[in-house]
Design goal:
By secondary structure, the chain is mostly helical. It has helices at residues 2-25, 39-58; strands spanning 29-31, 36-38. It is elongated, with a radius of gyration of 13 Å. Helix 1 (2-25) runs antiparallel to helix 2. It has two helices and two strands; from the N terminus they run αββα. Strands 1-2 form a two-stranded antiparallel sheet.
C-alpha cells in the first residue's frame, strides 16, 4: 500500500506541474491534443490524488 501511495503522490505532483506549465504555455485547456481539460480540473484531480496518497500513507 505504501508503494501505491508513493505512486499516487508523484503522479499528483506531476499533474500539478503539467497543469501550471500547460496553462501558461497553452490556451484555456491542457492536454495532449486528444483530451482537453481545463487547468482548474487538472489541479483538482492532482489535489485529490495527493490527498488519497496521504490517507493511504497515514493508515497502518
Amino acid at each position: 500500500m505504501k508503494g501505491l501511495a508513493n505512486i499516487l503522490g508523484v503522479l499528483g505532483v506531476l499533474i500539478v506541474i503539467y497543469a501550471v506549465v500547460g496553462r501558461f504555455v497553452g490556451g484555456a485547456t491542457i492536454g495532449l491534443g486528444i483530451i482537453g481539460i481545463t487547468a482548474k480540473a487538472a489541479l483538482i484531480l492532482a489535489n485529490s490524488l495527493i490527498l488519497v496518497a496521504l490517507f493511504i500513507k497515514s493508515s497502518k
